[in-house]
Amino acid sequence: MQQNGIYLDYAASTPMDKRVIDAMLPYFTTDFGNPASIHRWGQRAETAVEDARESIAAIMGCSPVEIIFTSCGSESDNLAVRGLAIHAKNTRGDKHMLISPVEHDAVLQTALDLAENYGFDLELLPIDEDGRVSPNDLESRIRSDTALVSIIYANNEIGSINPITELAEICRQREVPFHTDAVQAASQLDININNLNVDLLSIGAHKFYGPKGVGALYIRSGTEVQALQTGGSQEFALRAGTQNVPLIVGMARALEITHSERDEHNHKYSRLRDHLLGALPEIIPETRITGHVSSRLPNHASFVFKGIDGNQLLGVLDAAGFGCSSGSACKTGDPVPSIVLEAIGLSPIWGLGSLRVTVGRPTQEADIHRFAQFLPDAVERLRRISA
Ligand SMILES: *Cc1c(COP(=O)(O)O)cnc(C)c1O
Fold first, then answer.
1. What phi and psi values does residue 239 have, to the nearest 5 degrees?
2. Which helix (H) or strand (E) holds 24?
3. What DSSP designation does 236 have?
4. Could you tell me the CA-to-CA distances from 20 to 13, 17, 141, 192, 269 in Å, in that order?
């Protein structure tokens, strides 16, 4: 058993890889300079930032000038959606935005804010029962005044993977900028933009064994976005502020490791995931898998159990040493199914009883067996209480 219990919430955050910490350390102390300074201290910091940019660009198959460093995945999503929207409105008067209804809050709340407070016209795309957008549905909804399309690559709550290449291709043909939130996908899926065809792509380091508080946004050359944070001309004048050198170095190192070890980790993850997806609906009555059964993140298993409160289940699991999540990691006081579970058509009696189990590098097969042994009784007990 892992120290202090069994953590099964790697979609919420991951522990930092020791190699990442080692890469970062000098930039807190000896190499502390400001990358904008002319002297050697500044030059060393600038070199570190630009090496990190090159390394990330090589993995994404783009040019270093197309990578913007931000403070997190949420900021990358904001810069993409808000930045595209404001630029389109200012230059062309375009106000129509298309997003999926199962976006992370960083995209959804940003789009809602633009609609409520800045006069944008927000349209939610239809999804199937697994939360995926079909290319035909997207094609029929693009208008001449569509400012942007944003569709999540792999869903954080239910794990489903969208057909990003096909969706992006439609936008490419219609010359509409296409953004994808790849914050959850980046730890396991291909983020080479030449395969994906996207114009903008968000990542955040703490989802792939890097530090919290740092992210990046890929912006295809020629795609214009309005800066949201103004000041100095850092990050090609798209994001003012002295770069967080150690965190940027850490993110690049974390992505290199993730990229080079991806197949090996995914192989293990999918074996553990498939065990959960296969076993739990067998041993727990009235259980459904949420999200697509196969086209989903290798490390991601998610369920709903009829007639229980998912947050209560999390409490019971935590008391027994298991760290899981009920849908999105954000806590809410009032018991309503998450927006995502509602959007895929689950009634409250099902949608309230959601559980997300995500495995990671430290997860052992024995952890999963222990979990699968404990869970049926926990669900049964909660059902008896609420009955
Ligand atoms: C975690 C997450 C985010 C937010 O990233 P932060 O770096 O925590 O701000 C955005 N989108 C998805 C899909 C995520 O999983």
1. -160, 90
2. helix 18-24
3. H
4. 15, 5, 43, 22, 21
Distance between Cα 328 and ligand 1 center (Å):
10
Separation of 321 CA from ligand 1 center, angstroms?
25
Cα 186 to ligand 1 centroid, rounded to whole Å: 11
Cα distance between residue 345 and residue 323, in whole Å: 27
Phi, psi of 220 (to 5 degrees): -55, 135
Quick: pLDDT tens for 39-48: 999 999 999 9
| 204 CB near ligand 1 (under 6 Å) | yes
Q: Which residue has the tokens 């904001």?
A: 78
307-355 residue pLDDT tens: 999 999 999 999 999 999 996 444 555 678 889 999 999 999 999 999 9
180 Cβ below 6 A of ligand 1? no
User: Cβ(102) to ligand 1 under 6 A?
Assistant: no
Share above pLDDT 90 across residues of the chain, in percent, rounded to a whole number: 95
- Of 242, 201, 214, 185, residue with least CA distance to 24: 214
What DSSP string runs through 239-296?
A: B-S---HHHHHHHHHHHHHHHHHHHHHHHHHHHHHHHHHHHHHHHSSSEEE-S-SSSB
pTM: 0.97
